[in-house]
Amino acid sequence: MADKNNSQPDVNEQIKVRMDKLAALQEAGKDPFQITKYDVTHHTDEIRAIYEAHEKELLGDRPAVNTDGMDEQQAREAVNADYNERRAIMDASPIEVSFAGRMMFKRVMGKASFCNIADLKGRMQAYISRDAIGDDAYADFKKSDIGDIFGIKGFIFRTKTGEISVHAEEITLLSKSLQVLPEKFHGITDTDMRYRQRYVDLIMNPEVKDTFVKRSQIIKEIRRFLDGRDFMEVETPTLVSNAGGAAARPFETHYNALDEDVKLRISLELYLKRLIVGGLERVYEIGRVYRNEGVDTRHNPEFTLMELYQAYTDYEGMMELTESMFRHLAQTVCGTTEITYNGTKIDLGKPFRRLTMNDAIKEYAGVDFDTIKTDEEAKALAKERGIEFEERHTKGDIINLFFEEYCEEKLIQPTFIMDHPLAISPLTKKKPSDPEKVERFELFINTWEMCNAYSELNDPIDQRERFAQQDKNAENGDEEAQHTDEDFLNALAVGMPPTGGIGYGIDRLVMLLTDSPAIRDVLLFPTMKTLSKENQ
DSSP 3-state helix, strand, coil percentages of the chain (rounded to 5)? Predict the structure, then answer.
């Protein structure tokens, strides 16, 4: 790691020096790795907040020093005297704190030094003096390295430059860093290495840490929102015999104890619907799914999906829920419903546009598929427009190809694309007014599909026919086709109420709300090709 990401020379020699320092500490009975815990009373943001409140209480009415009419020397003396008076007032009522974190900066100045300690909430300057902590402790501190983890106890004060700091009275080395961190000003310039060694990325780049703190907050707020609507969080199997619920190739593995081939799930749908059959009227799951597909800026084979199902509603109900939830997340997590992604303003506060798939194609491609009656007409039109298709494709498949080619890139502001073709929606209820279409929508924002929702098909006879067509598609070479799931059909035969369901790609949602350019930027440990031994 250090060879590629550190401009300092002789990294191996620096590592050897650190190892020697550790050995010396251990020989002196000061092995940091024998310490099992440390009493942390405050994080860095709390230290600043309580000191500012204390200042306001003790110095709130004290006017700022007035240096008008003074020469430079007199002004300096007046400011210095004012500082000393303020320090005397504050130090008479000291606030003692204990905090811990990684040392990111150190400046040694004879009998006193400054260092910068980073914890989860930010960074805090500490003032380390020999007189306060003792000769031996100060000598050890002077030998410490950037990256070492310290616990510091002391009182809060404000320096002459105005920085809130901690005056150390006791300092404890909690862990010795034996690796050299990247050089401060250049950081990790190799993006690939940032993803492979996320722990270093988090240390060196506070904005990266902020992204993942915000990701956690987004998921927490989703749960809070759904809990407020009486949804129940559940868990369903990851290893399945039949990976259904989406058009994707699954990963396959073998279950030794049962001597059976199984697959990793590609969706959460079919098990959650079983729970609706069982009477759990509102359920959701946030979990990992696995799709054996390519990797790009918006796709990772292992990603987080959230699916929910609500009995006695339809895709209109899912639209209302989605619009309300996205608005809530933006306001709560970003502080505004008007967010910016890559310089483009996106307004989540206004009502989301609603557009059928055929109307979108008519608007952006100038083709009205409601007037196209046969598969042959649709294929001829595709050839005319230079859109590639497979011989097995139907009119419904061609409609979807036209939408992808002409429409997706135009959908920047939140838009519900509704009423998809039956051919590409094997788990969705038909529209009573038009049996070639289904009650389905996808939400597009910033050209991305953000979610996929249905009025769920609950007719077991119709569902069996749809599965049969999927089986035929698989026989004709469609590797992403679904297969007949007999147990799911049995569940539908028991009886499922009218239900609305939806799936959200959590990673893409986090990308949008954190203004992150790639899915790897919102996955702590994205999928990466294994390095050869010589490149590790």
Answer: 40, 25, 35
Q: Is 283 in contact with 263 (CB distance < 8 Å)? A: no
In order of 7, 256, 352, 361, 484, the CA distances from 259 in angstroms are 53, 5, 50, 49, 22
Interatomic CA distance for residues 522 and 304, integer angstroms: 11
What single string gives the DSSP state of each residue in 297-315? TTB-SEEEEEEEEEET--H
| Averaged pLDDT of the chain | 94
Amino acid at 428: T
Residue type, 196: R
Q: Is 289 exposed, middle or buried (0-12, 13-18, 19+ CB in 10 A)?
A: buried
Alpha-carbon gap, residue 55 to 90, rounded angstroms: 7
Contact call for residues 6 and 171 (beta carbons, < 8 A)? no
CA 377 to CA 395: how far, in whole Å? 8
Q: What SS3 class is residue 133?
A: helix
Count of residues making up the chain: 536
| Number of helices followed by number of strands (H, E) in the chain | 17, 20
Q: Using only C-alpha atoms, what is the Rg of the chain?
A: 31
CA 311, CA 439: separation in Å to the nearest integer?
A: 15
CB 389 within 8 A of CB 398: yes
With cut-offs at 50, 70 and 90, classify the pLDDT of residue 296. Answer: confident
The two three-digit tokens of residue 471, written as one number: 């089986």
* Residue 508 backbone dihedrals phi, psi, to 5 degrees: -65, -35
**One-letter-per-residue 3-state SS of 400-439:** HHHHHHHCHHHCCCCEEEECCEHHHCCCECEECCEEEEEC
Beta strand pairing status for 282-290 and 232-233?
parallel
Mean pLDDT of 275-290: 98
Q: Quick count: other Cβ atoms within 10 Å of Cβ 433?
A: 7
Tokens 């790897």 correspond to 520
Interhelix angle for 269-277 vs 486-494, to 10°? 30
Give the H or E element holding residue 75: helix 72-91
Query: What pTM does this model have?
Result: 0.89
The answer to whether residues 315 and 452 touch, using CB atoms and an 8 Å cutoff, is no
Quote the DSSP letter at residue 289: E
State pLDDT tens for residues 160-178.
999 999 999 999 999 999 9
